[in-house]
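Annotators were shown the component list below and the corresponding predicted structure, then asked to write short factual statements about the assembly.
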Amino acid sequence: MDLEEAEEFKERCSQCAAVSWGLTDEGKYYCTSCHNVTERSQEVINTDLIPNTLIKALNRGLKKKNNSEKGWDWYVCEGFQNILCQQAEALKNLGIGPELKNDVLHNFWKRYLQKSKQAYCKNPVYTTGRKPTVLKDNLSHSDWASEPELLSDVSCPPFLESGVESQSDIHTRKPFPISKASQSETTVCSGSLDGVEYSQRKEKGIVKMTMPQTLAFCYLSLLWQREAITLSDLLRFVEEDHIPYINAFQHFPEQMKLYGRDRGIFGIESWPDYEDIYKKTIEVGTFLDLPRFPDITEDCYLHPNILCMKYLMEVNLPDEMHNLTCHVVKMTGMGEVDFLTFDPIAKMAKTVKYDVQAVAIIVVVLKLLFLLDDNLEWSLSNLAEKHNEKNKKDKPWFDFRKWYQIMKKAFDEKKQKWEEARAKYLWKSEKPLYYSFVDKPVAYKKREMVVNLQKQFSTLVDSTATAGKKSPSSFQFNWTEEDTDRTCFHGHSLQGVLKEKGQSLLTKNSLYWLSTQKFCRCYCTHVTTYEESNYSLSYQFILNLFSFLLRIKTSLLHEEVSLVEKKLFEKKYSVTKKKSRSKKARRH
Amino acid sequence: MILQRWCYFIPAIGGKRKKDFAQTTSACLSFIQEALLKHQWQQAAEYMYSYFQTLEDSDSYKRQAAPEIIWKLGSEILFYHPKSNMETFNTFADRMKNIGVMNYLKISLQHALYLLHHGMLKDAKRNLSEAETWRHGENTSSRGILINLIQAYKGLLQYYTWSKKKMELSKLDKDDYAYNAVAQDVFNHSWKTSANISALIKIPGVWDPFVKSYVEMLEFYGDRDGAQEVLTNYAYDEKFPSNPNAHIYLYNFLKRQKAPRSKMISVLKILYQIVPSHKLMLEFHTLLRKSEKEEHRKLGLEVLFGVLDFAGCTKNITAWKYLAKYLKKTLMGNHLVWVQDEWNSRKNWWPSFHFSYFWAKSDWKEDTALACEKAFVAGLLLGKGCRYFRYILKQDHQILGKKIKRMKRSVKKYSIVNPRL
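Structure shown to annotators:
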């Protein structure tokens, strides 16, 4: 701050005896020759002055001693902004169009800042009264830097607008001085200016930004654009490090120091959980008061017809099953635009779990065809095998047993590799996170130690074994007709399990069992929990396979299967009490 | 201070209790352990690479426990991995020693043992000397015992040097000009050894190699009382864990000193209670047999039966010989009750354990002398009708033929199943 501001203070400095004072951000006097900060603060005389001083400050920058220890001043939401930027960039590299980053995600973010009163509003929430300075790197794209008055009344936008001033600010900005005398109150215990306060903030009705929530933002944008990435795909990409999440803070600019409370905010040490992100997506969507999303129609990737086809191919099931899945979709009404489209404001039950639903439909179709009671599917396989042996020239009948053997092997191998990769995952970043300046040398020393030990052991490891990072792919399993080692079942026929009756086809299997009989009477449609031992081994295998594909809990998939069945057999449900169990529940 | 502590509290994120970090690192640990069990050193090293990050665990409890785990597993890997060598191990040990202060002594000691194992005695000694000077945790009990161990191992190394020098000395003639110098050298070493070892053996524990070497030195210098004191303490101090070797050392010492029989018997009695199958039991029996006290002589019989209860001793010909002879003597001396006392608890299982037809054939095939002795015992205990005895009788043998005939007579006369008794 300017020297003129502190003219009234006439004392001699205790350390250097000079009389030349300036004001720190907190309003305390500091000696401009030796930078000794005192405890005396300037009285705020006139509140009208404040807006003007702010602008002056922004224009002139904060003249402080450049102390590389502390780095820049930055706010937590700026950190999140940086991370979102990184994630959007990664999505772009995956092939998503640039509109996602520049328009959709950016607008969502701005809206969030407005709604949570961190920016674009009259009284942004800043406890210390300091205003943040602009971080250039965050605004590396002009889209993000330019702020047309989109949704707000702009009075003091913290994210600077027009080019010239912002540039000069950045260059003349100097960080906060640290001097021993004021250590006790300036140990804010976080690199960010509001890290401590941010963690404690608990405002009602405001959705606080967290790391998992960044993914919710990403997913919302993807959904808005109706991109061909499901939530499970997105989370899998995160797990495979194709999208920055764990240690994303490493790519903050050098001067944005992270420590103390920031650890808890940015240093996440868990992978995102599907249900958690799903809930957050809805929460954020609702919080932002978003309108109805673009319609999910039949030609959309996220429509169950298309997703079912994708998953059928991925688990090596015959293409013919697709007809049945489409049929089920039709009967349950799950292909309706209104059912599929996300509408946060409408208070109905939300259904954006496209991937889980598609997979659940496939499970239901499998149950319709094969019953999966550890009995019928094997007898049908015997028939198929016999037929295939006799008629080698025809299109082979789909043999459940063969499929199971091949699929189980592939699944076990994949799962084992996945578990090994997870066990070897390196969580700690190259930039160690520390609690405070006192801790910093210790943390750096530890990191050095770890790196040395790793170097030593890397000589013991066969270098050829460590493969490079896999390129991201939507498919985890790949099956081709040409591969003679592993049979590809895509072209196989379902003739063995279907029989003709007049114009239509019926399944040979006329029985069915429901995954659950009980639903809560209340609105939540809560289903009974999935107890593995109550179900057939085939069913368990199918659930495990698909849950692994989507990286979700088996209970979640089971729940979804039950809901699909509920829709499918709705009429039956309503007369459950009266009718006998003829067509149903051989098992519950 | 308070502010800092407050900062250490990191709020749980997402409501999930266990972080994935904790889950993956514990999975990593299982993989390492599995790989070690299967001797897959390469795999173990791969997982170890990732496991190092537990040194930076945000959970302080786990962070503090990490160095020890890493040392234990890492040293195993480096010990066995084909690409590893002394240098790698030494670098690793030095690094691990300096992570935190708690592990320095333990790791130093283990490092020294590793060097010993590879024959690098000088390096081991140097290591131990360095470790001795570690001052942290001066008043803790754990440091105390570790320091004593370190000093004791140093003492053991010095003992080894002493032993070698003693050999040298024994080869020299007393008039040899080098004799005095070597003798002095030897003495110096022994003094150092004793200083280092004596502290450790005062602490309750199992210190066999240290005690043995120390006693050897004491005996060499004629300090019999000192040696006896050490050994007695080691064997009889109640604070020390029960250790059969302690009694064996004491007994052997007493034997060397030609101690009175009663003393030796009392020492061996304790050994008998701990390890009735020990081969010294035969010596014990001999001592008891020669004793004047009747209770000792009864015990002598008991001891023999006790030895032969164990599967490892069934082919011990000395034991059978003694038993055969002693049984006859006992029965001749009208101490049928003694025999019956011992036989009552054994008559249900000894016949099939020792005297089955199968054993008769196999023993005779393997060792006819043994078979003879056993047959005699069998005859005495089970009567001349028993299978074992009959089988041996039937066998034709040039040398033992006469003996077998004599046996037959004795059995007829003395067997406990004899109706006349």
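Statements collected:
1. The radius of gyration of chain A is 30 Å.
2. Residues 1-5, 44-67, 127-186, 577-588 of chain A have pLDDT under 50 and may be disordered.
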